[in-house]
Amino acid sequence: MPQRQDAEPKETSGGYDRLFGIPALGKLISRIQSAVISSGTELERMILDRVQRIDDLDEFLQVEIMPDGVWVANKRQIKQCETIDFPGSEPDFLIFKRREGCYVVELKDGHQFDTKKAMAGRHSIHSFIERSAYQLPYRLSAHFCCFNQDDRKAIVTGFKGKITAQEAMTGRAFCDLLRLTTMKLCQYDKQSSQQTYILSLTERMRIREIRGVVRQLLKENEG
Protein backbone atom coordinates (compact mmCIF):
# COMPACT_ATOMS: atom_id res chain seq x y z
CA MET A 1 0.00 0.00 0.00
CA PRO A 2 1.86 3.15 -1.16
CA GLN A 3 0.48 5.33 1.59
CA ARG A 4 2.17 3.17 4.20
CA GLN A 5 5.53 3.23 2.50
CA ASP A 6 5.50 6.94 1.71
CA ALA A 7 3.94 8.13 4.95
CA GLU A 8 5.95 10.96 6.43
CA PRO A 9 4.97 12.84 9.59
CA LYS A 10 4.42 16.56 9.05
CA GLU A 11 6.62 17.19 12.06
CA THR A 12 8.01 15.32 15.02
CA SER A 13 8.01 16.42 18.64
CA GLY A 14 11.25 14.64 19.49
CA GLY A 15 9.46 12.42 22.00
CA TYR A 16 10.50 9.22 20.25
CA ASP A 17 14.05 10.53 19.97
CA ARG A 18 14.18 10.97 23.74
CA LEU A 19 12.51 7.62 24.38
CA PHE A 20 14.92 5.57 22.27
CA GLY A 21 17.96 7.80 22.37
CA ILE A 22 18.49 7.32 18.63
CA PRO A 23 17.16 10.14 16.39
CA ALA A 24 16.97 7.92 13.29
CA LEU A 25 14.87 5.35 15.14
CA GLY A 26 12.66 8.09 16.56
CA LYS A 27 11.99 9.36 13.05
CA LEU A 28 11.19 5.83 11.82
CA ILE A 29 8.67 5.27 14.63
CA SER A 30 7.04 8.60 13.73
CA ARG A 31 6.79 7.38 10.12
CA ILE A 32 5.15 4.16 11.30
CA GLN A 33 2.63 6.16 13.31
CA SER A 34 1.85 8.23 10.22
CA ALA A 35 1.48 5.02 8.22
CA VAL A 36 -1.17 3.79 10.66
CA ILE A 37 -3.22 6.91 9.92
CA SER A 38 -2.61 6.55 6.19
CA SER A 39 -3.76 2.92 6.21
CA GLY A 40 -7.10 3.99 7.67
CA THR A 41 -7.51 6.57 4.93
CA GLU A 42 -6.64 3.98 2.28
CA LEU A 43 -9.21 1.56 3.72
CA GLU A 44 -11.91 4.22 3.37
CA ARG A 45 -10.86 4.86 -0.24
CA MET A 46 -11.00 1.16 -1.07
CA ILE A 47 -14.50 0.94 0.38
CA LEU A 48 -15.77 4.03 -1.45
CA ASP A 49 -14.47 2.64 -4.73
CA ARG A 50 -16.71 -0.41 -4.31
CA VAL A 51 -20.03 1.00 -3.07
CA GLN A 52 -22.98 2.91 -4.49
CA ARG A 53 -22.15 6.49 -3.57
CA ILE A 54 -24.56 9.38 -3.20
CA ASP A 55 -23.80 12.17 -5.68
CA ASP A 56 -25.50 15.00 -3.80
CA LEU A 57 -26.45 14.36 -0.18
CA ASP A 58 -28.78 17.37 0.04
CA GLU A 59 -30.74 16.19 -2.99
CA PHE A 60 -30.83 12.62 -1.67
CA LEU A 61 -32.34 13.78 1.62
CA GLN A 62 -35.13 15.62 -0.19
CA VAL A 63 -36.40 12.49 -1.94
CA GLU A 64 -39.70 11.37 -0.40
CA ILE A 65 -39.05 7.65 -0.84
CA MET A 66 -35.55 6.25 -0.47
CA PRO A 67 -34.49 4.36 -3.61
CA ASP A 68 -33.75 0.66 -3.37
CA GLY A 69 -30.21 -0.45 -2.66
CA VAL A 70 -27.55 0.68 -0.22
CA TRP A 71 -26.40 4.28 -0.54
CA VAL A 72 -23.28 5.77 1.02
CA ALA A 73 -22.12 9.29 1.90
CA ASN A 74 -18.65 9.89 3.32
CA LYS A 75 -17.37 12.42 5.86
CA ARG A 76 -16.51 15.04 3.21
CA GLN A 77 -20.04 14.94 1.80
CA ILE A 78 -21.53 15.17 5.28
CA LYS A 79 -19.39 18.23 6.03
CA GLN A 80 -20.56 19.90 2.81
CA CYS A 81 -24.22 19.04 3.31
CA GLU A 82 -26.40 22.09 4.01
CA THR A 83 -29.26 20.01 5.36
CA ILE A 84 -26.99 18.66 8.10
CA ASP A 85 -25.45 21.86 9.39
CA PHE A 86 -23.63 20.74 12.52
CA PRO A 87 -19.87 20.91 11.85
CA GLY A 88 -17.30 19.28 14.06
CA SER A 89 -18.69 15.82 14.80
CA GLU A 90 -19.32 14.22 11.42
CA PRO A 91 -19.11 10.40 11.26
CA ASP A 92 -17.05 8.60 8.63
CA PHE A 93 -20.11 7.29 6.78
CA LEU A 94 -23.84 7.63 6.51
CA ILE A 95 -25.22 4.42 5.03
CA PHE A 96 -28.82 4.49 3.86
CA LYS A 97 -30.82 1.32 3.34
CA ARG A 98 -34.48 1.30 2.46
CA ARG A 99 -36.76 0.02 5.25
CA GLU A 100 -33.82 -0.01 7.66
CA GLY A 101 -33.00 3.68 7.89
CA CYS A 102 -29.62 5.35 8.22
CA TYR A 103 -26.56 3.73 9.75
CA VAL A 104 -24.24 6.33 11.29
CA VAL A 105 -20.85 4.62 11.15
CA GLU A 106 -17.43 5.43 12.56
CA LEU A 107 -14.78 3.24 10.92
CA LYS A 108 -11.75 2.11 12.92
CA ASP A 109 -8.74 0.09 11.81
CA GLY A 110 -7.91 -1.10 15.34
CA HIS A 111 -10.17 -1.95 18.28
CA GLN A 112 -8.27 -0.93 21.41
CA PHE A 113 -8.81 2.58 22.77
CA ASP A 114 -8.14 4.32 26.05
CA THR A 115 -11.13 5.39 28.13
CA LYS A 116 -10.90 9.05 27.11
CA LYS A 117 -10.90 8.28 23.36
CA ALA A 118 -13.69 5.71 23.75
CA MET A 119 -15.90 8.21 25.56
CA ALA A 120 -15.10 10.97 23.07
CA GLY A 121 -15.90 8.71 20.11
CA ARG A 122 -19.25 7.69 21.53
CA HIS A 123 -20.15 11.25 22.49
CA SER A 124 -19.29 12.52 19.01
CA ILE A 125 -21.53 10.05 17.18
CA HIS A 126 -24.46 10.34 19.56
CA SER A 127 -24.24 14.14 19.52
CA PHE A 128 -24.41 14.02 15.73
CA ILE A 129 -27.49 11.79 15.87
CA GLU A 130 -29.24 13.95 18.46
CA ARG A 131 -28.64 17.15 16.52
CA SER A 132 -29.45 15.64 13.13
CA ALA A 133 -32.59 13.70 14.08
CA TYR A 134 -34.92 16.53 13.03
CA GLN A 135 -33.14 17.09 9.70
CA LEU A 136 -32.89 13.48 8.57
CA PRO A 137 -36.19 11.81 7.67
CA TYR A 138 -34.92 8.35 8.63
CA ARG A 139 -34.37 6.26 11.73
CA LEU A 140 -30.75 6.73 12.83
CA SER A 141 -28.55 4.17 14.56
CA ALA A 142 -24.97 4.48 15.82
CA HIS A 143 -22.33 1.93 14.88
CA PHE A 144 -18.62 1.67 15.62
CA CYS A 145 -16.95 -0.59 13.06
CA CYS A 146 -13.57 -2.09 13.93
CA PHE A 147 -12.76 -3.46 10.51
CA ASN A 148 -10.13 -6.00 11.52
CA GLN A 149 -12.03 -7.46 14.46
CA ASP A 150 -14.56 -10.29 14.05
CA ASP A 151 -15.77 -10.41 17.66
CA ARG A 152 -18.31 -7.82 18.80
CA LYS A 153 -17.55 -8.54 22.45
CA ALA A 154 -13.88 -7.72 21.82
CA ILE A 155 -14.94 -4.42 20.24
CA VAL A 156 -17.07 -3.51 23.26
CA THR A 157 -14.14 -4.40 25.54
CA GLY A 158 -11.78 -2.36 23.36
CA PHE A 159 -14.08 0.63 23.80
CA LYS A 160 -13.88 0.08 27.57
CA GLY A 161 -17.57 -0.81 27.69
CA LYS A 162 -18.61 2.67 26.56
CA ILE A 163 -20.60 1.29 23.61
CA THR A 164 -23.24 -1.43 23.47
CA ALA A 165 -23.02 -4.76 21.67
CA GLN A 166 -25.62 -3.48 19.21
CA GLU A 167 -23.41 -0.49 18.41
CA ALA A 168 -20.31 -2.66 17.91
CA MET A 169 -19.88 -3.65 14.26
CA THR A 170 -17.36 -6.14 12.89
CA GLY A 171 -15.67 -5.72 9.52
CA ARG A 172 -17.66 -8.65 8.15
CA ALA A 173 -20.98 -7.12 9.27
CA PHE A 174 -19.93 -3.81 7.73
CA CYS A 175 -19.14 -5.49 4.41
CA ASP A 176 -22.39 -7.44 4.52
CA LEU A 177 -24.31 -4.21 5.01
CA LEU A 178 -22.56 -2.66 2.00
CA ARG A 179 -22.82 -5.89 -0.01
CA LEU A 180 -19.05 -6.06 -0.35
CA THR A 181 -16.83 -9.11 -0.60
CA THR A 182 -14.87 -9.11 2.65
CA MET A 183 -12.22 -11.52 1.32
CA LYS A 184 -11.01 -9.15 -1.41
CA LEU A 185 -10.51 -6.27 1.00
CA CYS A 186 -8.83 -8.48 3.60
CA GLN A 187 -6.48 -10.10 1.06
CA TYR A 188 -5.41 -6.69 -0.22
CA ASP A 189 -4.87 -5.42 3.31
CA LYS A 190 -2.92 -8.55 4.30
CA GLN A 191 -0.61 -8.18 1.31
CA SER A 192 -0.05 -4.52 2.17
CA SER A 193 0.67 -5.42 5.81
CA GLN A 194 3.36 -7.90 4.74
CA GLN A 195 4.96 -5.25 2.54
CA THR A 196 4.89 -2.77 5.43
CA TYR A 197 6.39 -5.36 7.80
CA ILE A 198 9.33 -6.01 5.46
CA LEU A 199 9.80 -2.29 4.85
CA SER A 200 9.83 -1.61 8.59
CA LEU A 201 12.51 -4.25 9.24
CA THR A 202 14.58 -3.01 6.29
CA GLU A 203 14.48 0.57 7.54
CA ARG A 204 15.46 -0.51 11.04
CA MET A 205 18.49 -2.41 9.75
CA ARG A 206 19.72 0.72 7.98
CA ILE A 207 20.27 2.34 11.37
CA ARG A 208 23.86 1.74 12.45
CA GLU A 209 23.13 1.46 16.17
CA ILE A 210 20.41 -1.14 15.59
CA ARG A 211 22.61 -3.20 13.26
CA GLY A 212 25.20 -3.38 16.00
CA VAL A 213 22.69 -4.55 18.60
CA VAL A 214 21.23 -7.16 16.23
CA ARG A 215 24.66 -8.54 15.41
CA GLN A 216 25.47 -8.83 19.11
CA LEU A 217 22.16 -10.57 19.88
CA LEU A 218 22.62 -13.02 17.02
CA LYS A 219 26.15 -13.76 18.17
CA GLU A 220 24.95 -14.43 21.73
CA ASN A 221 22.16 -16.73 20.52
CA GLU A 222 24.56 -18.67 18.33
CA GLY A 223 26.67 -19.34 21.34
Mean pLDDT: 80
**Count, helices:** 10
Q: How much of the polypeptide forms β-strand, as a percent range? A: 5-15%
DSSP, total strands: 5
How would you portray this structure in words?
This protein starts with a helix and ends with a helix. 25% of the residues are buried. A hairpin with a 3-residue loop joins strand 2 (93-97) and strand 3 (101-108). The model is unreliable at 1-5 (pLDDT under 50). The chain has ten helices and five strands. The longest helix has 26 residues, at 23-48. Helix 3 (23-48) packs antiparallel against helix 9. It has helices at 2-6, 15-20, 23-48, 57-62, 75-80, 115-132, 152-158, 171-178, 182-205, 208-222; strands at residues 70-74, 93-97, 101-108, 140-146, 168-170. A five-stranded mixed β-sheet has the order 1-2-3-4-5. By secondary structure, the protein is α/β, with parallel strands linked by helices. Helix content is 54%, strand content 13%.
Features of the shown structure:
about 220 residues, alpha/beta, five-stranded mixed β-sheet, 10 helices, 5 strands, about 15% strand, disordered N terminus
